[in-house]
Amino acid sequence: MDRASPNMKATETLANESHAGAQQAAPHRTRIKLCGLSKPEDVPHAIDLGADAIGLVFYPPSPRSVSVAQAVELVHDVPPFLSVVGLFVNATPDWIREVASNVGLTLLQFHGDETPEQCESLAGVAGLPWLRALRVAADTQPADLVKSALSYSAASGLLFDTHVEGYGGGGKVFDWSLIPAELARRAVLSGGLNAQNVSDAIHRVRPYAVDVSSGIETPGAKGVKDHARMAAFVRAVRAADAE
Predict the structure, then answer these.
(1) Measured between alpha carbons, how far is 48 from 67 in angstroms, rounded to an integer?
(2) Which stretches in the chain have pLDDT values below 70?
(3) Which domains can be identified in the chain, with CATH numbers?
(4) Interatomic CA distance for residues 192 and 216, integer angstroms
(5) Which of 35, 42, 119, 211 is catalytic?
(6) How far apart are CA 49 and CA 42, in angstroms?
(7) Is 35 known to be catalytic?
């Protein structure tokens, strides 16, 4: 029987140690979406901070809403591999088509009362993948979220937000323990996150991504992003990942 040479054994040992070391040295990296950007200076700042995605709101009643013309200007210099997410609430196919044909979106986010069939149909109009926002109320149970996740299985991910009057952006936190562990890999955690609580949220849920809007705004000024708060939020996420 052939015996492995000392050199071969040493090589295998080093390879195994390197593989184990790589696994230990690669902590979970929580993706970051900074949402509700509306000013030209917000996007370059988000890029410099290393955000994974920016969110643009195409829901006119929202104070964070942008027009097609504004959105075109905002995404003009977006670099490769930065996702541009368009947030819609009960939108018509014509509105989806108008936005998608003019703005370089990479992902749709449905934040209204859209059924699974409506989400797929609207996404088909744009030819883009989509996220479904699930609003978590005080009486929501984990089983309800699992059922919704199954219903929206065609979604690229599930965004968990607090059920508030209107459609998101209320700055309210829900009970994170309601998110079943089996959904964490698909989860984009939202709802009242800020630099002070996002670390706890990450440790408790271990979501794929976090989404923030009101938590990076000037207090009392919806839609006005505070660049220092944006930076503090990103730092808090990266610190939580390193712990």
Answers:
(1) 24
(2) 1-27, 165-171
(3) 29-242 (3.20.20.70)
(4) 10
(5) 35
(6) 11
(7) yes
